[in-house]
């Protein structure tokens, strides 16, 4: 009897071990690292995925011993998101796994469509899709933008993307924006979504810029922010405007401000946004306290304060004319209302568009 039980246990273990050859195995899955979405025809969609080849050594970098890339690119076209995802599954010889996506890129042409908010919702509702992936908008082809991605300093594309975008966000060049946040704002009743703005540089330089990159192994440029209204792309901000946007949103610890061809760093000590409501009139209020850099007298600091006020007022004014609030003023104003119905009846967008801005900047040692 004991021998029979032992034999049955061995057979059961063999069956269990054999089951590991199912699609759960790493070798049986295609882990998507980057997704790119392009507009095709009248409402169509092109979907491109970048996946690593399983078994390629990390030490080989972007080019293996044979000279081939350790990453594969699959691209399909379809009339809708669900159809494109199904076509991508058919085109890829392994089970698509969306849980490791580091970046989602959409072309400007696609993001400008009125239906883009619905597309974002469809993506966010997709099971296992990593919605905390960085969200990027680019001019031209999103597929070309994806294919230009290479490991420059790191050895793995996933860590390269994560580290690079985290670094740019800390420096204020881009917003720390992900798909989940964009979907939340697009479906909310307060502020508006933002995304990272990316572009391709053919020669490594930025034409017309007083400060330019003259040599870099990177063709991709992550610099600036993409503004949305109602889940639809409206306009891009430069990296200088994006730094001010991050400052107003309280998402930077240090402001690197360009003044008279100098890059001056100001530690952010405190920041606050507020909205004063008096009857039907509102006033936007912004309070910033910055640490004073060394080597500047009071006269120069006074000139710097005024220059910052002018730049901030220009940025907020441009967004007001577009009817966009990416700063977070709506969240501050909503605290004055008890119910969502009262807030919606207040018609924040129209009032925000004509509201004066009170800016107080303190630069103290």
Write a concise synopsis of the structure shown:
The chain has about 375 residues and is α/β, with parallel strands linked by helices. It has helices at about 1-20, 80-90, 110, 115-125, 140-145, 155-170, 180-185, 240-250, 300-320, 330-335, 340-345, 350-355, and strands at about 30, 35-40, 45-50, 70-80, 95, 105, 135-140, 195-200, 220-230, 230-235, 255-260, 260-280, 280-290, 355-365.
End-to-end gap? 86 Å
Spatial arrangement of strands, main beta sheet: 4-3-2-6-7-8-9-10
How many independent structural domains?
Answer: 2
Count every helix, treating DSSP H or I runs of 4 or more residues as helices. Answer: 12
The portion of residues forming beta strands comes to 25-35%
Largest sheet: 8 strands, mixed
Order of helices and strands: HEEEEHEEHHEHHHEEEHEEEHHHHE
Q: Overall 3D geometry?
A: globular
Q: Keywords for this structure?
A:
single chain; 365 residues; alpha/beta; GMP Synthetase, Chain A, domain 3; eight-stranded mixed beta sheet; four-stranded mixed beta sheet; 29% strand
